[in-house]
Write a structure and sequence with these properties.
The chain is of the alpha+beta class. It contains four helices and five strands; from the N terminus they run E-H-E-E-E-H-E-H-H. A hairpin with a 2-residue loop joins strand 2 and strand 3. The termini are far apart.
Length: 161
């Protein structure tokens, strides 16, 4: 467990850094925390990489929030953290859980030696934007544009130029 002293808005919530020893926490997850059901084989693969981080918020044995990230290094840049996703079940929002999850992921990144962390969200996602600003993030001056390459198993070569 990470922060033993819960925030004032969520006294019944505990925050956990997930590793293989406590992966069973994800046996019970509120329906709207992740985009899809947690798949044990993918969870195992995720946790096998020391570059990945998964932090969860638990209420009465049920995961009600999560944050994931990836620590990465480039040939010309020092170790950084990409916060991939933050999710809190609808019935537990507005209680400071997202903030506690982001702070826990940032603490993990600092302990690993990351020099920067970044996260992206949709312009219209006001709740996420407020969350990131409340945890010390600074909005980048130039908006990003996201492109997606569909690389389905059967058509990878067909999708490439």
């Amino acid at each position: 467990m990470l922060d033993p002293e819960p925030g004032a808005g969520a006294p019944d919530i505990t925050i956990h850094l997930v590793d293989p020893a406590c992966a069973s926490l994800l046996d019970r997850v509120d329906d709207d925390v992740f985009d899809h059901a947690v798949r044990p084989e993918l969870l195992r693969e995720f946790l096998e990489s020391s570059s990945n981080v998964l932090v969860v918020a638990v209420a009465e044995g049920l995961v009600v929030g999560m944050a994931t990230g990836i620590a990465y290094v480039h040939p010309d840049k020092p170790l950084s953290l990409f916060i991939n996703e933050v999710g809190v079940s609808a019935r537990h929002r507005q209680r400071g859980i997202g903030r506690r999850l982001v702070v826990a992921v940032l603490e993990w990144a600092c302990a690993r030696g990351c020099v920067e962390a970044w996260v992206a969200t949709e312009g219209g996602n006001i709740a996420a934007r407020s969350l990131y600003l409340s945890t010390g993030a600074v909005q980048d001056e130039e908006p990003a544009v996201v492109y997606v390459y569909p690389l389905s198993q059967g058509s990878r070569r067909e999708n490439l130029p």
